[in-house]
Structures are given as structure tokens and as C-alpha cells.
């Protein structure tokens, strides 16, 4: 690494860290102001609040990374340009591509750190922040879905008309075993409840029908304890659940949802694929920032920083829009996760081709 690379890299990374600290601190203050009434109402200890915001800090740092990396890039490059340092570099025989090297090194370092954060660190921190929000900020959760169908084994399906997540009781329960298109057995009960001591489901009375061709056998029992690939946690709040899972946990959960034939899998798929595309976007936005701000501006760096803000917000809008389209099934989640990066890669290529430097 040459002296020039170290010079630019140091400025870029230090500016990025400074911008992250400033923006996240401001957002935490605003968030505290909004939630202060809830904290007072529940008499939340100061230590709990501090731990909550310490865990929330990396989440916001990652969320704002497109904005912060763009601002840092534009600020550093525009300042170098305003002091004619970039002109001196290019005049000495350094190509613009070579000038991009320290920025690519810095953005790659940030991208690797971001990937580690969103893959493992932030989900574990989110487990605590989401639990805190559910306990002190959110209203008590009530499971209100009706006519619940869940696949609990390759040939076994559970049906409940409704479920009370407070008492852990399912009403109008049915357990069906189906071989292809043939119903092999059907167990029904007016309700089924969770026994926390035995870790099993209990029915006070039940009816079991078994089918062998055209022959049907009927059996009525008074009590039944059974183990199912179904737990009370499956009916708990899914508020930001996808954000509380590490990458391995998220992959396992997606496989489980697929095995059960769940219809809300898209939100978890888009979360998984975005974690891989997000670091790549950091590098793309850095390159675009250098291209836009490498030319000396007469009016100073204000316009270039404002343009950086604008493009970073446009990127976030693309992320939100593609995520929404994927969640409703209009776009494949994998494609939706990469759309913002693909579009901005194209924008970067056009800017590199046509913007004078």
C-alpha cells in the first residue's frame, strides 16, 4: 500500500465512522423522545434503556450505511478536489482507476464488517431490542388468524379454527394423515391445549377415524397427550422476527417454513438475500460518490454533499420498494434483493462513462 493510498483510506474510514456516530446519535435521541412516555409509564430503569440503545446502535448504523458511506465518500473526495489534490494526483500520471483503489479498499473493509454485523452481531442484538420493544412499547400481542392450516410432517396436517396465544389453546382441532390424495386418518377434538410440564399437547376428549379403502374405523377417547412438530412459539408475535435471526438461523427457519407450506416465506427470503446484496451496494455507492465529487466545484462541497444525500435516499427507496413487491409476490425475493444494486451499478457505469473528471 502506497503513502497516497494510506492517506485517502485514513480520511475515508475516519470520516465514515464520524458520520455514523453523529447520525446514529441523533436518531437515538429522536427515538428516545418518541418512546419516553412509554418508558415513564412502565417505570423502565435507566440501565435497561442504556442497554437497549447500545444494542440498537449497530442496527441503525447498518440501516444508514448507504447514506453514511455516500456522505463520507463525497465529503472526502470533494475536499480533496477543492484543494486541487485530485488534480495534482491525476497530473502526476495517476489514472482515475488507480485513484479509486483506496476507496475500493475502504469500502471493501466496510462491506466485510457490515456483512459480519448483519449476519451475526445485529440479529443477536435485535433479539434484545425487539424483546424490549414488545415488553415496553408495543401493545400486547393477540394471535387473530382464523382457519389455520399447518403441515407438521410429510403426510401430516394440523387444522385449527382459532388459537388463543394467552391460554395456549387451539379450538376445533383436527390432525389429518394424507397419503397422496387419500385420507388415512383424522383425529378431531373441540380443543387442544399445551401442557408446559410434559411439553406435549393435550386433548380432554377426541375422535379418531381411520380409513382403509372404503372401510372406516371410529374410536372415541377421553384424554390424549401427543407430541407434534408444533409449539406455542409458532403462535407468538412475529414482530421483526426476521431481523432477530442470524444467517444460519434464518436459513433453517426458511427450510422449516417451506416444509410446512407457509405462505409468508417471502419476508424471510428477502431478508436473507438482502444481507448478501447490501455489502455489495456499499462498494457501488462508494464508486458513484467518487465519480460525482472528483471534479472541483466552484460553489464548494455543499451541492455535492446534498447530491450524495439525494442519491443515497433514492437507493433506500429502491430497497423499500423492491422489498414490498417481493413480499406481495410480484417479484422473486432473490431478484428483488439485487435490483437496487443492479440499477445503481448501471448508474455508476453511465456516470463513469459520461461525467467529466
Structure overview:
The mean pLDDT is 92. With 357 residues, this protein is α+β, with helices and mostly antiparallel strands. Strands 1, 2, 3, 4, 5, 6, 7, 8 and 9 form a nine-stranded antiparallel beta sheet that branches. It has nine helices and nine strands.
How would you concisely characterize the structure shown here?
The chain is built from 9 helices and 9 strands.
- Give start-end ranges of low-pLDDT stretches: none
Order of helices and strands: HHHHHEEEEEEEEEHHHH
Task: Please give the number of β-strands.
Answer: 9
Helices, by number, come to: 9
Average residue pLDDT = 92
Morphology call: elongated
| Proportion of residues in helical segments | 55-70%
Topology, please?
Layout: H1 3-41, H2 46-63, H3 65-82, H4 85-91, H5 96-136, E1 148-153, E2 156-160, E3 162-164, E4 169-179, E5 182-195, E6 200-203, E7 206-212, E8 215-221, E9 224-226, H6 247-259, H7 266-293, H8 302-327, H9 333-354
Antiparallel strand pairs: 1-2, 2-4, 3-4, 4-5, 5-6, 5-7, 6-9, 7-8
What structural keywords apply?
single chain; 357 residues; alpha+beta; 2 domains; 9-stranded antiparallel β-sheet; 9 helices; elongated
